Structure formats: C-alpha cells, structure tokens
From TrEMBL, chains A, B:
Domain of life: Eukaryota
Name by which UniProt lists this protein: Cysteine sulfinic acid decarboxylase isoform X7
Species per Swiss-Prot/TrEMBL record: Castor canadensis
Length: 309, 309
C-alpha cells in the first residue's frame, strides 16, 4: 500500500523480493502529493475483500518530485487498526528531523516500524550513505539475513561477537558507509547540521518569492520542502494558455532548455512530467554552499537561454 | 545447484529473492573443494524425480576458503544437457583471467551465461567494485529491473537515452564503482595487472615452500590459488596427533594466536574450521605490495606468539 507519488523503488523491491508488482496497491494522493488516509483505508478493505492479506504500508516523507510529506499520524492510526507494518520512506525528507523548526513535517514518524533515511541526500554525505532504522529490538535483520557462515563469522573470538554485524546485512563485502555520517556529525555537530537544513528552507523561500515576481515563471505549487517545481514559460507562449497546443509546446521547453544549459555547461536542473502536468523544472535547494546569488543566476540563466523561444 | 564450498551469498540470495533456501541443492565437492560434475548430474536427476525444475547451476572460480576452481567445462556440459542457466561466481578468482600463465584455471568460463567478478578482491580496487557479466544481448537487466520512472529517466533528452543505464540496476542512487576499475586499468595497463596476479602466485609459492621447511607448520593442502591454508602446531602438540584431544586442542590454537596478534597489533590473519577440519589459518597473498620479507615475518611472528603453547 503506497501512494502513486512514492518512489519507484518500492515497486522494484516488490519485484526483486519475489512478491511481484501485482502485490503493490496504489493509494490516492491529494493535489499536494500527500497520501489520503481515507483512501488507504478503502484500499485495505478492497484488498481484504479480494482475499488478500495486506501487511505493509509505505508512507513517504519527502516525495521525489513535489517534496510532499504524507500525514504519518493518520496513516499510523490506519496501520494500528489493521495490524499492518508501518514503513516510512524518509530517504529524502528524514534529515528534516534535525531541525527544531521544520521537524513537525514528520510528526508521527516515531510510530513507524521501520524508516529508511539517506544522509547522502539532504545532508550531502558522500554517496552512498543509507540507514534503515527499526523499532524491533529482537535482532530482526540477523534473523532475516543471517547465515552464520562459520568460515567468516567465527564464534570463538576473544571479544563479544555480537559486535560483528556483518552477518545481518544483505551484502557481504561492503564499505563502512556509516563512518561518513559519523564523521560529518562529529565535525558539524547537531546544530551545524540543523543550520544546513534551516538554510536550505530559507533559500528555498527566497527562490520561490523571486519566481513569483518574475514574468514567465510559474510555480507548480507552493513548496513545503526544498523542491521548487516551476514552469518557465518562454516569451512566445506567455498569455497563450487557451491555445489548444499550449501544453504540448510548454512540454518541449524544459528539454530544450536542459539541452542548452548542458551544452553551455552552466547548470544542471532536472525536469519531468508529473501526472497530468506538462514537463516542469524541479530545483532542489540542498547544497549547503548555495547562496542567493546562485538562485539569481539560475533564474537569469533560464531567462537568457529561453529568450528566443 | 551449488557445491557446499560455495559462498554463502548464494543461499542468502535465494532467501532474499523469495525462492527460499529449500530451493537450493548442494552438490558434493572433492577433497580439493571442487564441485563433482557427476554428483551435479545426480542431484539434477533427484530434483527432477521430485517434480522440481532445476534452472541454475552456480559454479565457483576461487572458493573463499580453499581457493578451489570448479571444473567449468564439465559443468557447462551438464548445464547444456539440461538447459540450465550456467552462472560462475568468479568474485574471488575472476581476476586470474588477466594472467596468461594462470588463466587456464577458468577454462570453460567462456560458456557461462553469467559471471560475477569483484575487482575489489584480488585486483585491490577500492571497495566496492563488483561486475556482473552477462552473455545476454537483449538488455536482460533492463527487462528485469527497469521501471521507466518518468520522473527520473526522461525519454525526451537530446542524446541517446540508452546511455542512461540507471534504470537497469537494482539500486537507484549509487556510486560509479566501475570508474575505479577503469582508472586502475588505464594506470596499470593489462600487463601491469597481469604482473600483480603472477606476483601473487609466485609469492604464494614462496610462502608454501617456507611452510614446508618449518617445524610446526602443516599445510591443509597444496594450494592452486593464493589461499594458503595451514595449521600452526605449537610445541606442546607436536608429535601428539594420536592423542584423543589433539583435534580439540589444535582448534584452540588459531583463536588464541589471533587474539595475541590483534592485541599486539602486528598482523591480521583469518582462520576458520572447514568441514571436518579443525581451525586453520588462511593467508591470502593478494596485496601487490607484499614481499618475501612479509612472508618471513608472518611465519616468524606466529612462531614467536605461539612458542609457549
């Protein structure tokens, strides 16, 4: 059970683990991209009526495109009522918990059975640095993945072998990815990391207000996170919203501008269509070295590259 | 279908992918740790008689403990006869293909449907660097793992989007691990890498001959690869092979010496029991900076640490 706005990794995981993608049911999201708990309840009833046994809900804290945060408390209520595992994909938005000002976006995450969090995203730890946090205290991962390969995980060591965690992960040989997070945390401190998050939100606010004042820029919606989604409407399309080919022509703008910025070497900004919406740009304001001058450059550069369209 | 000497990752994968470990059948290995093709044939018949449909054989080129190379050509014949997928786990031994002198150990690998190879092992590329090589030319990985997430893998780009390989792998955000191999290969050349392999084999030979000349050292077997497996028999146990508690006491030697070397900070050598064999040391001669002096030090240090046992 997951919203259609969730990351494609959930579907991929279902296929990979042998559950099959038919086992994945999509829950409706509202116009801001948040899962609708009433529809979740409805999908569970439908699945049960078909004889299925729904067992897991994957909510998202920070969707990839819109940066939406699902209403975790309401979803936790549904999970509790139906005895379902409550997973939160906070890969993108989990770092917001470090900010006293913004952590309310994740209210209810403390009720999750499992949380996925990628410090390599918003916190800018080096790729890859992913954490899976579990409520479980029974060594679940070891019970799932452990194979007690005696040629690798000797039990007759001189120290407490429960410190050897290698057997509980999926991989065998792997990097010590958590060290990057630990070092960064020691170097920056909790306050330093909080400042990064708060600055990202503040800079996002600056960019959004700039977009509102400039002709030819149109927000997809007011962001609640650091994903700024907007269209650049070039001069030839301004005020032509009523033309039948408007959406089709608008769709071609982002790919064209992307080609130009890549060939110039000046910027890299992602774009995508989304549901019924034509291709729009998605600026992620995450890099802690970004300044207002970078935001100004970004908008000026789009104007410059798109002035003849 | 795999030999009992194979890496535990095969069992783990079967569990993880939802096939279940009961689907994994173990084939007998000979006293050198090589899969016995006649027993593979027998296990396939047994499985078919039970109504199962065997579909994959996983052979190993370079087992973890003994460094054994399965007879790939004979196994390929069996796979061909039964229409089974022929996978070679060459994670450890695959790099030997770079040596004209030693690549015969992998004769038959050219008939594999898939090969796993870890340049981060014998070639010492930085962790992690793993390759999965496929005979398939139909973009199988994309067909298995691709989800065409339109918000990530746009099709309306200005270049050939088949160059975007992200959708065919299991992960989404991941490091460009292949770059390490490419850079190393450019820097060292094929001949440089070949020299590393050949040196590792030569230094292994030196260590083995030294072990044979020293009192208290006993080879588990003549190695065919760079895994040197041996017992250190301390003074108090020499010539006591007939005592009923010999094996039990010998088993305690490696853990005790391991504790001593770790606490001294002088060496790190793995040990393990293996089938009916008591704990023995396993030295892997892989690091290209190793010299004969290091081999001498290793044996001297074991003698020093174990002289009172």
């Amino acid at each position: 059970m997951l919203s259609w706005q969730c990351h494609y990794s959930i579907n991929k995981g279902a296929a990979f683990l042998g559950l099959g993608t038919d086992s994945v049911r999509v829950v409706k999201a509202d116009e801001r991209g948040k899962m609708i708990p009433e529809d979740l309840e409805r999908q569970i009833s439908l699945a049960e009526a078909e004889g299925s046994v729904p067992f897991l809900v994957s909510a998202t804290s920070g969707t990839t495109v819109l940066g939406a945060f699902d209403p975790l408390d309401a979803i936790a209520d549904v999970c509790q009522r139906h005895g379902m595992w409550f997973h939160v994909d906070a890969a993108w938005g989990g770092s917001v918990l470090l900010s006293q000002t913004h952590k309310h976006l994740l209210d209810g995450i403390q009720r999750a059975d499992s949380v996925a969090w990628n410090p390599h995203k918003l916190l800018a730890a080096g790729l890859q640095c992913s954490a899976l946090l579990l409520r479980d205290t029974s060594n679940l991962l070891k019970r799932c993945h452990g194979f007690q390969a005696s040629y690798l995980f000797q039990q007759d060591k001189f120290y407490d072998v429960t410190l050897d965690t290698g057997d509980k992960v999926v991989q065998c040989g792997r990097r010590v990815d958590c060290l990057k997070l630990w070092l960064m945390w020691k170097a920056q401190g909790g306050q330093g990391l909080e400042r990064r998050i708060d600055q990202a939100f503040a800079l996002t606010r600056y960019l959004v207000e700039e977009i509102k004042t400039r002709e030819g820029f149109e927000l997809v919606m007011e962001p609640e996170f650091v994903n700024v989604c907007f269209w650049f409407v070039p001069p030839s399309l301004r005020g032509k919203q009523e033309r039948p080919d408007y959406k089709e022509r608008l769709s071609q703008v982002a790919p064209m501008l992307k080609e130009r910025m890549v060939k110039e070497g000046s910027m890299m900004i992602g774009y995508q269509p989304h549901g019924p919406r034509a291709n729009f740009f998605r600026v992620i304001v995450a890099n802690p070295t970004l300044t207002r001058a970078d935001m100004d450059f970004l908008l000026n550069e789009l104007e410059r590259l798109g002035q003849d369209l």
